[in-house]
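queue> pop job 88
queue> type: inverse folding (structure -> sequence)
queue> payload:
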């Protein structure tokens, strides 16, 4: 199977760098999913280091560092790493600025890899999963959460009434991720999904939250021109109409993965 995320990696880096300062104020969903991830798959106290891919401002890294003797926080955006350093001061953490698709670690050098709502921003998920397997030691494990295709279905539907551009990023299904895992050499893995619905006081409040966590539209099929005020207002009207006068809700499909090397 071919991985066709079609993401603009430079845009991804820019978006998360810009969001670093205000990220924590908007990242309630990320914290909720991270807590669920740790509850489902607690971090084992192995001697080998644990790696947090896409650490952001350090929420997951802080928990991992308190459970293991050696932990590494990795992110593509320097401002995110700087925020993680401030939030995790005093903990035994190493910080690495690198692309998750090109992990700068030796073969068989990492005991566990965690990642919370980050790998959906990678261009080549197949390559990432293969590289994770490469750096993990024998019996090492990969634990992660990512968004599924039902994420922001309401927002996608509203924009589809306005134009044909991709205004919401596309995410892989469990079947697709399973195929990527198998192609990368993983033989023992499990996937499960959860659909979370969150309420917002307005469509603009939802849009502000997405901007606050750096979740910009980075699809190569996005409109190359800035969104006009008329197009935005039309989308909002369609969104509100679909809510039938009730509260504004947005769906997030969360996929949880555990894989053993």
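queue> result:
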């Amino acid at each position: 199977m071919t991985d066709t995320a079609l993401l603009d990696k430079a845009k991804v880096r820019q978006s998360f760098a810009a969001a670093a300062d205000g990220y924590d104020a908007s990242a309630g969903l990320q914290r909720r999913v991270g807590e669920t991830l740790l509850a489902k798959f607690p971090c084992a106290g192995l001697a080998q280091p644990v790696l947090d891919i896409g650490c952001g401002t350090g929420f997951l890294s802080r928990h991992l560092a308190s459970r293991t003797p050696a932990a590494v926080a990795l992110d593509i955006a320097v401002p995110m790493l700087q925020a993680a350093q401030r939030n995790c001061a005093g903990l035994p953490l190493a910080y690495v600025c690198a692309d998750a698709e090109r992990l700068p670690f030796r073969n068989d050098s990492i005991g566990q890899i965690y990642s919370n709502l980050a790998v959906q921003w990678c261009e080549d998920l197949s390559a990432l999963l293969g590289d994770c397997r490469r750096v993990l030691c024998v019996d090492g494990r990969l634990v992660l959460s990512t968004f599924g295709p039902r994420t922001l279905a309401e927002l996608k539907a509203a924009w589809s009434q306005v134009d044909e551009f991709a205004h919401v990023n596309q995410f892989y299904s469990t079947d697709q991720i399973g195929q990527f895992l198998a192609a990368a050499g993983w033989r023992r893995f499990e996937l499960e999904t959860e659909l979370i619905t969150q309420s917002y006081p307005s469509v603009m409040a939802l849009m502000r939250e997405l901007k606050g966590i750096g979740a910009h539209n980075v699809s190569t099929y996005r409109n190359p021109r800035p969104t006009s005020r008329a197009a935005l207002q039309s989308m909002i009207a369609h969104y509100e109409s679909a809510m039938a006068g009730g509260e504004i809700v947005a769906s997030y499909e969360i996929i949880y993965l555990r894989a053993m090397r």
